């Protein structure tokens, strides 16, 4: 039987050389070896070129350790959390970061809409929903911050960039997208909030939500935003 040291070495190799799915599995396996693997994981978090979903999961595992030295290092290295909270509009994304880090996805979804309305301006804030022309004007750093937060704290399952990837893979077929991400089954739309899934058992791309009552123009503008041509996600 392999020792914990051998297993830690094997998992470290897997974290530095495998695809995202295997990296996430390695993190789950590594969590069973905590706190012994904490320092190594912190080192990897600083140096490895991971996707946001892997970075976020590693960060969450380290924050859950309760190790004072590791907590201090995380605060020094990532004072705002694992995702840089960039905003051209001066918005505060820390509350969204906190909700997503603690996997409170329903509250995070509500807050995401409010933040998008803030980006759009006072008229959108007052009405509580968006015009597609407002979405087209969203600053790139703000939309990427929101998307990276969702990616980082969902193991890469949620985010507008995930929805875009699925949509493109389906030939930009909206009906197939609704089915794939479980926003509709057959002719029946998923009802908010009780029929949506607010945890990681949800299908990939299930969150964040976009209201379809006024058609597809808003989500079309989101998934075609110029931000995605400047993002590696």
UniProtKB/TrEMBL annotation:
Pfam families: GUN4, GUN4_N. InterPro entries: ARM-type_fold, GUN4-like, GUN4-like_sf, GUN4_N. One of its GO terms (molecular function) is tetrapyrrole binding. Residues 4-79 form the GUN4 N-terminal ARM-like repeat domain. Residues 87-225 form the GUN4-like domain. GO terms for cellular component: outer membrane-bounded periplasmic space. Transmembrane segments: none annotated. This is GUN4 N-terminal ARM-like repeat domain-containing protein. It comes from Pseudocalidococcus azoricus BACA0444. The lineage of its organism: Bacteria, Bacillati, Cyanobacteriota, Cyanophyceae, Acaryochloridales.
């Amino acid at each position: 039987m392999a020792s914990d040291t051998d297993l830690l070495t094997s998992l470290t190799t897997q974290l530095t050389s495998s695809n995202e799915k295997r990296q996430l599995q390695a993190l789950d396996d590594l969590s069973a070896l905590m706190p012994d693997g904490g320092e190594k994981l912190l080192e990897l978090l600083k140096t490895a070129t991971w996707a946001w979903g892997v970075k976020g999961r590693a960060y969450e595992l380290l924050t859950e350790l309760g190790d004072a030295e590791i907590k201090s290092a995380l605060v020094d290295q990532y004072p705002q959390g694992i995702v840089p909270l960039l905003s051209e509009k001066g918005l505060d994304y820390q509350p969204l970061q906190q909700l997503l880090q603690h996997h409170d996805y329903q509250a995070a979804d509500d807050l995401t809409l409010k933040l998008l309305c803030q980006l759009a301006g006072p008229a959108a804030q007052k009405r509580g929903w968006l015009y597609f022309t407002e979405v087209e004007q969203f600053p790139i750093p703000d939309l990427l911050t929101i998307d990276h937060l969702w990616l980082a704290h969902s193991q890469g399952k949620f985010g507008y960039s995930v929805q875009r990837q699925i949509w493109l893979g389906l030939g930009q077929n909206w009906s197939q997208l609704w089915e794939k991400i479980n926003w509709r089954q057959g002719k029946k739309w998923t009802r908010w909030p009780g029929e949506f899934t607010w945890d990681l058992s949800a299908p990939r791309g299930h969150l964040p939500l976009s209201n379809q009552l006024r058609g597809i123009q808003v989500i079309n503008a989101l998934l075609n935003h110029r931000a995605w041509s400047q993002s590696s996600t």
